[in-house]
Design brief:
Arc Repressor Mutant, subunit A; D-Maltodextrin-Binding Protein, domain 2; 3 domains; 4-stranded mixed beta sheet; elongated
Length: 299
């Protein structure tokens, strides 16, 4: 089994089409098809269900896809390690992030990082924490900035980045708005606005309220912070959010929660082993977060 065969296989699996995969790889379709047939003979299994319009993975193909991505990712990491020894970073770095990453201004960090490493191509995508963690595990992402997953795969590396308390967000006209703090059990009758399951703080809030014996109603689900806060502004529900959301609007009241409530943690997730490019970006991120904390203390 050759790495080129795995590269061809992954391209066909992702494109669901031999012609598109060949164009993506800048190779002849006949050569790509022959390579896939050779791989199937070696494995003794069909990897694709072929039709005139597209191809689909067989169960054997789906099993191979995970391991093929890991193998190609490990190869890239080996190349990165050699480049790092030579003082170079090149190739590609795939990053995933929550939409609202308060702890560090990621665009600014990426701009500085690319200036220092112009030979590196960076890809960025937003998503839910569980989804992004799974993509790191599968080798589709090198690094992700997410909220700490409730269940984390064994074959990724999780590192702490920031921690902050949850607070209650409510409309300025809400009865709770005049309070200094609110207990979780007082939220039983409230309608909630929240992110979709597996998105942002949703998993943590679900667990926190369940532990307090609160069965809540999530009336409206969103996928971005500003939509959530707009809905809260107009009294369409309350929300439990990280304290940093208070910096985004003065049209919502943010109230401390009574008692001991688990904090919301932002973490980094990388493959195991971590690629040289991902490790270098992590150093930049930690330097930026440390500088930001120092500035906040001085201010």
């Amino acid at each position: 089994m050759e790495l080129r065969q795995l590269e061809y296989f992954v391209a066909v699996a992702e494109e669901c089409h031999f012609t598109r995969a060949a164009k993506r790889l800048h190779v002849a379709q006949s050569g790509l098809s022959a390579s896939i047939r050779s791989l199937e003979r070696e494995l003794g299994a069909s990897l694709f269900l072929r039709s005139t319009r597209q191809v689909e993975l067989t169960p054997a193909g789906r099993a191979l896809l995970v391991e093929a991505r890991r193998a190609l990712s490990a190869t890239d990491a080996a190349k990165d390690a050699v480049a790092a020894v030579q003082g170079l970073l090149r190739g590609s770095l795939a990053i995933g992030s929550l939409q609202c990453l308060h702890v560090v201004h990621l665009p600014a960090v990426l701009a500085r990082f690319l200036t220092a490493h112009p030979g590196l191509e960076i890809r960025l995508r937003h998503g839910g924490s569980g989804e992004l963690t799974e993509q790191v595990r599968a080798g589709r992402l090198d690094l992700a900035f997410v909220s700490r997953p409730a269940r984390c795969p064994d074959d990724v590396v999780v590192g702490p980045l920031a921690s902050e308390p949850l607070v209650l967000a409510c409309a300025l006209e809400h009865p709770f708005a005049a309070r200094a703090q609110v207990g979780l059990v007082e939220l039983r009758a409230e309608q909630f606005v929240d992110f979709h399951p597996d998105w942002g703080t949703r998993d943590l809030v679900d667990n926190v309220l369940a532990a307090a014996g609160v069965e809540r109603r999530v009336s409206l689900e969103v996928t971005d912070v500003h939509s959530l806060l707009d809905l809260v502004t107009f009294g369409l529900g309350v929300a439990l959010v990280p304290q940093s959301f208070a910096a985004k609007t003065d049209r919502v009241r943010f109230i401390r929660l009574a008692g001991i409530v688990p904090a919301w943690e932002t973490v980094t997730v990388t493959g195991d082993p971590t690629s040289a490019a991902a490790a270098a970006l992590l150093r930049e991120v930690h330097e930026a977060t440390n500088s930001r904390r120092s500035a906040a203390v001085i201010g």
